[in-house]
Amino acid sequence: MENRLFLGVDLGTSSIKLLLADQNGRIVDSTSAAYPNSFPQPNWSEQDPSDWWNGFCSCLSTLGKRNDLNRIEALSFSGQMHGLVILDEKDEIIRPAILWNDGRTTEECLILNKLPVVEWTGNIALTGFTAPKLLWMKKHEPQNFSRISKILLPKDYLVYRLSGVFATDVSDASGTLYFDVQKGCWSQPMLDVLGIREEQLPEIHESVDVIGTVRADVGLSLDTKVVMGGGDQAMGALGTGTVSDGQVSISLGTSGVLFINSENFPEENRGRLHAFRNANGQFHLMGVTLCCAGSTKWWVEDVLGQTDYDSLFEGIAALPINDLIFLPYLMGERSPINDPSAKGILYGLNASFRQKQMTKAVVEGVCLSLLDCLKTANECGIYPKSARVIGGGAKSPEWLQILSDVTGLTLHTIQTTEGGVLGAIILSMVACGHFASISEACKALIHEDRIYSPDPVRTLAYTEKYQKYKAINYS
Fold this sequence. Notes:
This protein has helices at 49-64, 106-112, 117-121, 130-140, 142-146, 154-163, 170-173, 188-194, 232-240, 293-303, 309-313, 355-379, 397-407, 419-431, 438-445, 456-471; strands at residues 5-11, 15-22, 27-34, 46-47, 72-79, 85-87, 97-98, 150-152, 167-169, 179-180, 185-186, 203-205, 210-213, 225-227, 230-231, 248-252, 256-262, 274-277, 283-289, 325-327, 345-347, 386-390, 410-414, 448-452. It is α/β, with parallel strands linked by helices. The longest helix is centred in the last third of the chain and has 25 residues, at 355-379. The radius of gyration is 22 Å and the shape is globular.
């Protein structure tokens, strides 16, 4: 039988990436397409969903020039979470999608958090989530709100265009705040508050479910299976093999994520960290710092006007630990303070500090914010010793050593930083029966690369610095 291929699709905030793998899980080709963000008002962030579809089709066309796309047995998706996509009764886009990093819904979150939303959904209301966006639309765009026929998340829009199936998965649905994470169904009390009906919402699936086959004429065989996929963080966890109880992964992307897999719903969390369904049929706790690589990009490119990260980062892990502290709250903050109005701070400056020391302080600040999430997990009885790391920041040995020293975790990188799209490929292969389970596929396809161990002396020094970090008034 001719070797089959599997396609992973990563719908990101700035671009869409497609990776093609053979039946042994080896990446044989990849491509990407960028699209614009729109910021129509301060603290707003929107995109045209048509740009995602056009980028997807463009990438397929590029791959089709180099590969026989008829060999693709299945494809699956990893998608940016929380974005609000709304269609009318003719399946036309009503307005641009309101994205995860849009902060216009502070007032709506205050309203929702006066209600028992943790009891109804497992989480508190945050500006990034989908439910506050709907409440904002209901008040500020009532004509658009009245036209809503279908409510989708970003990756679900691509799935719908490709297969004609109106569906979502439990991991992505968990980030809407109108999904009951513990029960695994839409939360009727939240639907009542938002003024939406269940028939406007997609059918709920597990991430590994085959929900249909390709219907659109995009260069793929009409027999190609469409596997549901999941939210980017859940898929990134699959791509790192974070699938057993208590296992941890860390993503150093635009936002930073501490991800902890759990067999059971973490009731003791009480909304401090995100409590979501996972793409492997279990649950996870997730701590998020909004400006991770976003902070280093701001510092290196916008403030210093440089692009050579390697030169600027070289040697910073070995520099003495000092009292210069950076709070990375450049866009407010999520876990565990959950305050959209939180402000970034560079505290403790004096004339002796130079560029390298200040650069280290920015990296340390991001790592301390992830330690803040880890400390909250400790309060839930979770004490990990190690973690696998993905994302753009995982390419920097200096950053990883600082993160290991700050958190006290032994860190492992894997053979790719593209965890989310690798997770999509794993789901495709499992759904087609090439592996008996997701765990089996992860063991076969994911391989550790480098190891970073914490220095006990530096970890102790960072324990003291963390106390000073927490004492600073960020408001």
